[in-house]
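Our preliminary data section would be incomplete without showing what the modeling component actually yields. Below, a chain of 213 amino acids is followed by its predicted structure, encoded as tokens that our downstream tools consume directly.
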Amino acid sequence: MTSMRMITRLLAFAALVGTATSCGDVVRTGRSPVMLVINSLAATPGGGHGAGVFSSVLLSDVVVNLTAPPPCSAATPCPTIFNDPGQVTLTLALKDIGTTTAPLTPTTNNAVTLNRVHIEYIRADGRNVPGVDVPYAFDGAVTGTVPASGSISLGFELVRSAAKAESPLIQLRNSRNTLTVIARVTFSGQDRTGNAASVTGQIQIDFANFGDV
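Predicted structure:
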């Protein structure tokens, strides 16, 4: 009986510790009274066919054969790799919207200034080893303030040019295969009272050696 009481007390203590830890995580990561909302997430190839046209699916060319300027020509093209830009539009939403009779509205203190973007790549089949199955994840810098009301559009680097010179993308230069991945894009920053805020969106990328036009 004593052993059973001791086990019960230990289990109760463990549950209490677990609950306290979970609450602590929520407090640390969720203090901001607003949520970042991604309204749109798009990308464009850095060079080659389709460059400059943003789309919800990125066709990323692993190598582009430039025929200009000299010494590049149709007879002696210059194999070139480009990074691929992304573009995001963000707004804010209050976590507590109030009531129908007394709705709440954001104030200037709720504006969130973004300073970091984190990109990681995954595959639907679960083969996600960086440098083998997918490109390496990386962190980049962004600067922009999401206003209390309204939206902001920011550009960022979605695919580094260096990634196209590394495995597994470099193998696609002399292949007809296509590698499809999902890029998880996380934007992070702080509101004007110092509370952390972040949001994650996803975009599909098809990597291949697409035909040059």
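The longest helix spans residues 2-29. Residues 4-29 have pLDDT under 50 and may be disordered. Preliminary results of this kind motivate Aim 1 of the renewal.
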